[in-house]
Each structure stands twice: as structure tokens, then as C-alpha cells.
Amino acid sequence: MKKIDESYFYYLQKRSRLGYLYRKFWLYPKLCRYLGEKTLDVGCGIGDLLQYKKNIIGVDINSESVKYCQSKGLNARLMKIDILPFKSNVFNSIVLDNVLEHIENPELLLHEVRRVLIDNGTILVGVPGIKGFSSDPDHKVFYSESKLIDVLAVNGFTLDLMFNMPFKWKYLDTRASQYCVYAIFKKTIY
What we know:
Number of strands: 7
CATH class: Alpha Beta
CATH architecture: 3-Layer(aba) Sandwich
Helix content: 25-40%
Low-confidence stretches: none
Radius of gyration: 15 Å
Number of helices: 8
Shape: globular
Oligomer: single chain
CATH superfamily: Vaccinia Virus protein VP39
Strand content: 25-35%
């Protein structure tokens, strides 16, 4: 597992300078409008969002990524697959940015997200477009907009808002690896 962690960690660090600038000055300012004060970033990777938004906690299954984030003074914790190391009803918002497509069966993770999210809390989910999905060998499931809505609905979340980044344009979907679909969901109260 350590070898896999190391190789994926180094893959994450290969992001382009343009990709970093896009995240810092375009993507994260928009995403953070929808995040609450107590936010959890599931699949925090190398901690770009943790650096951008203060008072956020990150978790990842990749031990190398977590060590890297911690070495930069970021609040990152190692999680076991599909188990979030927190009490129930703790966070008012949770981010799954480019995470779901790596998981063949996301039900267990979404159950955990639901458990640690407060009632009526927000989950922000981002999934890559066609080009982004095909550019990462670790991607397992492609999410169209309708499939994303269906998967979250079945797991106890109601769609609040959907948008594309950097903006909606079919041309970018097949030509830009940074093109993503983002959706804001609320935890459904039964």
C-alpha cells in the first residue's frame, strides 16, 4: 500500500502551475461561497483547499498525502477506507472534490458523510468531465450530471444547485481536464 500511496502522491504533485492558479484564484473562491464555518475536505490530496480556506479539516486514505499536508502545518488526518474519524453531526459542510469517480461503490462513504454532517448540512461534490475522467488511470466511475444527482439522492441528499467550472461549455468537457461538474446537496432530513 505504501508504494501505491507514494506513486499517487507524486502524481498529484505534477499538477501544472496553471492548474494551481486556476484553483486558487477561480475555483476555490467560488466553491468557498457554499461552505460553512466547520468544513471537512474528504480526499484532501496535497492540501490545496486546506491552504486556501482556513479552519478546514482534511482527510485522505493516502498516508503520503496526509504526511505532506501535516508537514505544511495543515489540519489533515489519515482515514480508513469509508470510515471518517469523527463523531456524528459535527460538520456543517463537506467537500468531495474529484473523489467519487475513484470509488466503485460510494454508498459506504456517502453513509459516513451523512453521519458526520449536521441536519440540513451541505455537501459539495465535484466530478470531472469526459477529458478529466479519461486522463487519470485511477478513475473508476464516470458521473454524468443525472447519475451524480441519482447517486446522491439514493444516499439521502437533495440537490440544491449544479454548475460547471470554469463555466458550462460542452467543448471544454472533451478538451479540458480541469472541466468539472459541481453540485451542492443538502442532507435530507427524514
